[in-house]
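Input:
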Amino acid sequence: MREITIREALNEALQEEMKRDDAVILFGEDIARMQGAFKVTAGLLDMFGEDRVIDTPLAETLVVGGAVGMAMAGLRPVAELMFADFLGIAMDQLCNYAAKMKYNCGVNVPLVVRTACGARGSGMHHSQNTEGWIQNVPGLKIVMPSTAYDAKGLLKSAIRDNNPVVFFEQKTMYGLKGEVPEGGDLVIPLGKADVKRQGGDITIIATGGTVHEALAAAAELEGRGISCEVVDPRTLLPLDHETIIESVKKTHNVVIVHEAPKIGGIGAEIAAVIAEEAIYELESPVRRIGAPFTPVPFSRPLEKAYVPDRERIITTVMELLSPEGV
Amino acid sequence: MVTISREDKIGLYRQLVLNRIFEEKTIELYRLEGIPELPHSNLGEEAIGVGSCYGLNADDYVVPDLRIRPALITKGVPLNEICADMYGRLGGTTNGRATSHHMGYPSLGVVGTSGIIGGHLTISAGFGMASKIRKDKRVTLCFFGDGGSNRGDFHTSINFASLKKLPVLYIISNNQYAEGMPVESHISIKDIADRAAGYSMPGKVIDGNDVLEVYREVQDSVERARNGEGPTLIECKTFRLRPHCEAHPETRSQEELDEAWKHDPVPRMEKHLLHEKILTESEMGDIRKEYTRQVDEAFEFGKSAPYPPVEELYNSVYDGEAEWVRS
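Output:
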C-alpha cells in the first residue's frame, strides 16, 4: 500500500473535507501564506482561497474564540493553535464557550482545534503535552493519533463531528510514514481504540508518540519471551473502555504510557477505569509511565530523561513480569 | 441621518416600558420571595438594548452581556421562556440547564454567551467573520460594559474586526461601575470610544439614556457595517441605578443616585412623546397596564412551571449519543 507521512495524511484530510463541504474553513496564525509552522496546511490557500484559509493575528483567544463564533454561526472551522502550550491562552474560549454552548443554548459548536504537542528540543513553552489540562472538561472531545492512517481518518471524523474536538498532533511524528490507502473516504469513528499489536502477556496502553516506543519495546520484549499487546486509545475523550478492558482480561497485566506528566495524566483515568471495571482480572499492579512532574527541560540529555522511551517501558514490563530478571 | 417615524417612537417607548416593568418586577420578587437566579439589574440602562435592537433584521446577531436583557426582549425572546429560565424550570430555553443570564435564542439570532465578563468579544468577531465569508449581509451587535472593555479580548476582537472590516458593532454600556469600582478607578481614559482611533475605526460617544439617540446612532453604524465598511465602537454613557447585583449592598451616596435618577430614560421618552403629542398620559397608562399584566403572567408561568426531571442533567452536553456523561 501507498505510504505517506502524518503531515501529508493530515493535509489530505483537510483537503478532502474542504472539497466535501464548503462550510469547512481553516483559521489560525501563519496557516495560509506560511502554510503552517509544520506545513500541514501546505497548498491549501492556493486551492481554496483566502476566504477559506484564513491567517489570523498572533492572538490565541481570537483563533479559538473566532472559530467558536464561526462554528456557532454554522460554519465548520478547523482552528490551528501552533503549539499545544498555547492552549492556556484560549482556555476561556475553549472551556467556557466551545464546550458549553450546546448545554447553554442548544447550539452545536462543530469546531476542531488542531495543535502540535510533544518535546523536540524546544524547551518548556513549545514542548508540552497539554491534554491533561482539558481532559475533564465536559463538552470537549480529545483525539491523539499515532499513525498516518489514524491521523487522516480521525481528523476527517473530527471535522464532521458536531462537537468541539481538540486534536493533538505529536510534532516529532509529522514526518513519520505509514500506510494510507489512496482515494476512498477514510473515516475512523471517534471513541474507538485500536489494538496496534496483539499479545498475550501484558497490555501496554500508549498514546501519541509513545505508541511507537511501546511497539519498539514490544518487539524487543518478544525476543525475551514476553508477548505484549499494544493498545492505542486514539481518542482520549471519550475513552474506549471496552477495548481496554477486553485487553486487560486477556493479558491480566497493564502498563500505561504517555508523554504528559504522570501525575493527573490520562493514565490515572485509565488506571482508575481498570480498577473499577476489572481489578480482579489483574495479576500485577497497574503501572504508569509518564513524564516526571517538572517542566519540559531544554538540554538534550535532560529532555531524553524526561520523555518516556522504550527502555523505560521494557524495564517496567520486566519488573512486573519477571522481577528477578530485571 | 436616520429619521424616526411616530410608529417607531411608540414602538421604542413600548419596549422601554416593557423592560422597565420586567426589571421592577424582578427586583420586587427577589426581595419579597427570592428568585433562584440572582438578578443583575439593568434598571436605568434599558434604552441601550432597546434602541440598539429595535431596528435590526430578524436574522441579525445579538451577542449579549448579562445586563442587556432589553436587547433580548426587543429582539423578541418570549418573556415566559426568560422567566422559566430564571426559575430553573421547564418551559424555558434549556429546561433548567442554564440561567437566563447568558441565554441564547438561536432562531432570533441571539447568541448564547457565558457568565464570565468579556469572553464573548472574540466570539462576536467570529460571527462577523462568518457573515463576511458567506456574504449574508447580517450584522452582529456585541454588547459589553466598561468593565468588560478592560479584557484583552477587547483589543484582540476590535483589531481583527477593523482589519477584516467585519460587520460588527461593539456597543459599550458605560454605566460608571464595574461591580464596585467606579469607572475612573479602572479605566485610564475618559471616553472608551476614543480607543477606536487606535484601530482605525469610528468610535462614538452617545447618550445611552436617550433611546432615540441610541436608535439613530446604531442604525447609522448598522448601515455602514452592512455595506461592508466595517465595525464601529459605540460607547453609551449611562448609569447603573442598582447595585452590581441584588445581593450586594448599595455603596454609592444617595446624592449620586438622586442625580442619576434625573436622567432616567423612561420619563425622558415620555416627556418627548407628550411634547410631540404622539401619546397622551392616559395612553401611556394603558401601555403600562398592558405590560404589567404580561410581565405578571410571565413570572407566574416561570414560577409555576414544573422542575425538570433529573434526566435533563445529562442532555445536550454533546450532540449525539454520549452515554459516558453519566459515568
